[in-house]
């Protein structure tokens, strides 16, 4: 998604592309000082068409992200978001609709920079799913142990607590260690994910 919230301090690992994720597509972008428009289409017989747009300034931003699957001739995703950024805080409100899951949700988050020197950040995120009428509240913090190492620790009311340690061993190349535990089942082994991101 082109329009993504910088308020995600909760240690969610992004999906790492691998061989089976390979997809050939054409993407067109228009960049302006106050706008970005991007559109892509897969080079297959029945491609997925994506469109995203972000409008705004470094203070207030509005964005939309839409996907259309020509195989089923239907929209598969529609996300909108609004963010407000100040010197030491970021507030973000997003509305997500995942068509193929028949589910929709609204998401609000608040991200506050406590100490810019050590990158200490606290954040809270609230997600409401209309289809299941469930609210998930996540609180998290982030701290830079040194200029190359960052630790993040979120916990939510769905009994999940996790830690993420990220080490930038060379510019833009990261080693990430993610652990998640179910607080209702402490006796079970935690989920562990390791990721290596390489960028030239």
UniProtKB/TrEMBL annotation:
Domain of life of the native organism: Eukaryota
TM region(s), chain numbering: none
Signal peptide per UniProt: none
GO cellular component terms given for this protein: mitochondrial outer membrane
InterPro entries assigned: Porin_dom_sf (IPR023614), Porin_Euk (IPR001925), Porin_Euk/Tom40 (IPR027246)
Pfam families, alphabetized: Porin_3
Gene3D superfamilies on file: Porin
GO MF, one annotated term: voltage-gated monoatomic anion channel activity
Family: Belongs to the eukaryotic mitochondrial porin (TC 1.B.8.1) family.
Protein name according to UniProt: Uncharacterized protein
